[in-house]
């Protein structure tokens, strides 16, 4: 055991940390899209595994075909928007349950993404040939660009969900029946929310394809788990740090922070020389732990309250007996 710990190199973890932060920022941006459906709409959307790869595929293929990288990223976001819209239409117009609607779109996107990439499973995007927004070659720039994207996106989402339409989306997720009674078209709100969510997810996929230097048809596989992990970790940390002062802006911020922490934890797991093939298992364990924290915390509080009430009742009974 001592030999195992002495074999670990702290410098190696330190060298990998900037890369973990850069990737965490990109996935944290993706988690903002997941937050919209998971928390605001209360919609279990599995489209993201496909729309994330769509964003990467569109970004890479448009860039290598001569389009400006910003135009490519914008078109990637529009492609993600259309993917979310498809899921929304399957649910609202055909009555397909949310999970199944997302799965159907996700399956369809696999073929769509292959066709976008000229029937190749992956396509390279070299920073030596193209003027990219960020790259793993320059981690400092990648972190700065990721921070800028995250800050701008958080500000826009904070503003948008404070508008009448944004508030209607939040009300739809909170109480659909009451929202409908108030004259809100809940189907339209779901379509807008799903479209916006997957547009953000696809944009994140476009950023990751630039960072990694390639797009892969499977690059979004398991993305929903990472997104949920970032959301849950961010919420748990935010509630622990800010408590009752945790507002909507704070929640959005901590979602991105959750993505960073998730990738730092993954970096620690790899640094500890855990088997890389078990990474998905470690991911599931990490998510399960953070999901359980709010529940266990609530259970402990309720048990203390019950014990307090019982003690008070016993004290009151003893006084009456006297």
Protein described:
With 322 residues, this protein is mostly helical. Helix content is 77%, strand content 2%. Strands 1-2 form a two-stranded antiparallel ribbon. 43% of the residues are buried.
What is the straight-line distance between the termini? 62 Å
Overall mean pLDDT score?
89
Order of helices and strands: HHHHHEHHHHEHHH
Q: Strand order within the widest sheet?
A: 1-2
Low-confidence stretches: none
The major beta sheet can be summarized as: 2 strands, antiparallel
Give the strand content. Answer: under 5%
Tell me the total number of β-strands.
2
| Count of helical regions | 12
**Given the C-alpha coordinates, what overall shape results?**
globular
Structural class, judged by helices and strands? mainly alpha
Compute the CA-based radius of gyration: 22 Å
Helix coverage percent: over 70%
Compose a concise summary of this entry:
By secondary structure, the protein is mainly α. The chain is built from 12 helices and 2 strands.
Give structural attributes:
322 residues, 77% helix, 2% strand
């Amino acid at each position: 055991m001592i030999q195992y710990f002495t074999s670990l190199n702290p410098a190696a973890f330190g060298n990998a940390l900037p890369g973990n932060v850069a990737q965490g920022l990109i996935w944290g941006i993706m988690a903002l899209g997941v937050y919209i459906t998971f928390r605001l709409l209360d919609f279990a959307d599995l489209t993201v595994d496909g729309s994330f790869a769509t964003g990467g595929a569109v970004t890479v293929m448009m860039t290598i075909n001569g389009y400006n990288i910003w135009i490519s990223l914008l078109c990637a976001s529009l492609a993600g928007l259309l993917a979310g819209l498809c899921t929304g239409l399957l649910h609202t117009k055909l009555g397909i349950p949310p999970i199944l609607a997302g799965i159907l779109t996700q399956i369809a996107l696999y073929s769509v993404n292959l066709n976008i990439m000229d029937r190749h499973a992956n396509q390279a995007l070299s920073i030596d040939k193209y003027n990219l927004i960020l790259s793993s070659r320059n981690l400092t720039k990648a972190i700065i660009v990721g921070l800028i994207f995250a800050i701008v996106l958080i500000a826009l989402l904070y503003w948008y969900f404070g508008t009448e339409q944004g508030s209607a989306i939040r009300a739809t997720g909170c109480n659909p029946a009451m929202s409908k009674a108030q004259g809100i078209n809940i189907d339209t709100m779901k379509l807008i929310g799903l479209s916006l969510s997957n547009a953000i997810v696809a944009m994140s996929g476009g950023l990751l394809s630039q960072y990694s230097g390639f797009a892969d048809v499977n690059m979004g596989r398991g993305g929903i788990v990472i997104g949920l992990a970032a959301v849950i970790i961010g919420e748990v940390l935010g509630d622990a740090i800010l408590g009752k002062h945790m507002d909507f802006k704070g929640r959005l911020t901590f979602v991105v922070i959750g993505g960073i922490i998730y990738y730092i934890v993954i970096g620690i797991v790899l640094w500890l020389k855990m088997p890389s093939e078990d990474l998905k298992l470690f991911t599931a364990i990490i998510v399960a732990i953070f999901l359980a924290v709010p529940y266990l915390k609530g259970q402990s509080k309720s048990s203390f309250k019950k014990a307090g009430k019982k003690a008070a009742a016993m004290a009151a009974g003893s006084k009456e007996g006297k």
